[in-house]
Write a structure and sequence with these properties.
Elements (H helix, E strand, L loop, with lengths): L8 E3 L6 E3 L1 E4 L10 H13 L4 E3 L10 H12 L9 E6 L14 H15 L4 E6 L8 H13 L3 E7 L3 H14 L3 E5 L13 H8 L2 E5 L35 H16 L4 H10 L4 E6 L4 H9 L8 H11 L3
Parallel strand pairs: 3-4, 3-10, 4-5, 5-6, 6-7, 7-8, 8-9, 9-10
Antiparallel strand pairs: 1-2
Amino acid sequence: MPQYDKMTYRRCGKSGLALPGISLGLWHNFGGVDRFENGRDLVIRAFELGITHFDLANNYGPPPGSAEETFGRILKEDLHGYRDQLIISTKAGYEMWPGPYGDGGSRKYLLASLDQSLARLGLEYVDVFYHHRPDSETPIEESMMALDQAVRMGKALYVGLSNYSAEATKRAVEILQSLGTPYLLHQPQYSMFDRWIEDGLLDTLSETGMGCIVFSPLAQGLLSDKYLSGIPDSSRAANKHGFLQRDAVTSERMRQVENLNGIALNRGQTLAQMALAWVLRHPQVTSALVGASSVRQIEENVAALDTLNFSSDELGSIDQILQGN
């Protein structure tokens, strides 16, 4: 079923695991408010194209938990014979249920959330279990020991971090190394419009041997041709459930998008394809995590892997545009 020969796979840090250059995230469009048949089509087509990694979190929906339920149904009904060809990840860290034990980084919350995620997914284990964000009210040692316990209990093969700073990542890795925990991935936000990981985190990941899978590489769709003529009714900015809000689609931002689109066209790519190639230009970046609302978007994103190289002139022009010059 999967076309492995048409996908680019990259080694994840210093581990033995490879991930596809493009991975599919289920942050949007897979919740209980969304049409199940569309979500099924997206997952199946992604897998056909060689996307083996599917990324979830306990709170993805809406409502929270429903994206895992959707994916669990697809696994059972359509992909039940392919579990060993899939990398499935989930996370815990944001508010998931009421009361003092449904949020944060405590051992109580993280392990309870993982059990709930496995039940929704219909799985005995996930390949990667992340702490979704650092928790200032919980000692980092406690959170890392919970991740370690998830592996020792056979409920996760690897662990990961998301939204951790470079300094917090170093400390977390020190603890995980001392425990002998197979730490695999860091998942930060990264795009042309959000470059914070260039200020230390990428170097930290190289030093620690962690892989890196970036989320929102298309800035929630802003780095595409979708908004060049306004805000479409079907877009994330028009969706009250979406993360991208209308006020983010400013005239200044759209001027940048138009100029970036010109460079992409000269490269023979769409803007979305160039934006994905741009984040993947870093050797530390293992995979770009994309969302999608249509099969066409997935196919377009995977085609970005055909042209990953940039000339120095292209990179210089992109930097000038992003700096407002």
